[in-house]
Amino acid sequence: QVQLVDSGGGLVQAGCSLRLSCAASGRTRSRYTMAWFRQAPGKERDIVAAITGSGNTFYADSVKGRFGISRDNAKNTATLQMNSLKAEDTAVYYCASPPEGVVGIPRFAKAYEYWGQGTQVTVSS
Model confidence at 8, in pLDDT bands (50, 70, 90)? Predict the structure, then answer.
């Protein structure tokens, strides 16, 4: 019943910033974790950042200090602010949310039920 639409990707130079947005439709997601994953060609879909309904956050080691995740429950949106982008950040980025009954921040993609369509982020060196 929940649909997620992510947006904001593009082609940028290394060192630049992008802001990705995820809009949720259907049920309000305020009580559930919202996460961002990314997948580069030939690699696994890995978690980048996540935020729980209560505001607890998780960041992959590779993005700590550079990325920030936030949410606006009134608007039913989640945002990933990406700063100091590197070539290795190039990937398709997906927002995701787990099904009802899942608490905390699952690390792996298989724990998530609702997914955005993906938005391409390409960082040129």
Answer: very high
